[in-house]
Amino acid sequence: MLRALVPWRARRRAGRRVPGAGGGGEGGARDRSVWTRGRVPAACAGVTAGLLVFHRAVPNAVGRLGSLLEVFLPWLGLAVVALSGVALLRRSATALVALLLPAAAWTYLFGGLLLPGGKPGAYDLVVVQHNVSDENPDPAGTALVLADAEPDLIALQELVSPALSAYERALAPAYPYHAVRGTVGLWSKHPLTGVRLLDVKPQGVAGPWSRGLRAVVRTPQGEIAAYVAHLPSVRVRASGLASSWRDESADLLGRAVAAEEVRTVILLGDLNGTVDDRGLAPLTSQMNVAERGFAFSFPAAFPLARIDQVMARSATVGHIRSLPATGSDHLPVAARITLR
Asked: Helices 76-90 and 100-110: crossing angle, nearest 10°?
């Protein structure tokens, strides 16, 4: 009877809950949904972070999936960007918080490469590495692009006749010293001695195959052993990454560098692998790689990875950058090396 005396509107107001109070009502439901929705992008963020941090744990036994991941490892940053957009659209606090993990991992691994290079030092060398392509229609123009960077050393791969003569003529005025072994060559402003063929040929390769040389460069700061190499190509297939010959050749090259008696070593080459690829571990385990710059070099039309490398022992590879396109399917790269 008393209930009937209470006005209907008053009963309705009394039955309303204060938004957000006691975890109920529309506000409480909204708060809960912000943290409960977006579990899928949050899980994807966790997987991305795991791949970045523990990429070495991805096995290489089947299809060399570990190496394949490491070739494109920097591009996992795009996954972070894409997942951030999904998290914002979903208004998911859980996903946004989870994305802090891959963002931090990517920054730790690659953020330093985005920093500007330091000022040139008193004992710096500038070097250029370029696979000029055996089908390059303009070798003379390519040589001019490389010389325009004013390097001390220029390393070239896929040198074939008659293009070799064009490179020799174009580079001779500024680079009076040069050596060619097989299809690789080194041009220098400083005298070269001790030039010899470097054997990096895998056992399964038949026929002539000369893709490495070693020389001593007599710089004003002392002798430097310069290595120029072109490792076997890799192929991405349905079964995974085919890189066994490349890996074998990298191991041979790593042994040669380890046995080198000259203290300072510079390696320039088309290594057909990135510095994150475990297939190049025989080299990256004992040599310094570039501290600044991505310098993606292949393919030239839309560079996805830097497979043209500059490494050094007892020296620091500072900033590395891509040079303008030439008639090759690779972009040339230039790096500054600080001698210790």
From this structure: 160
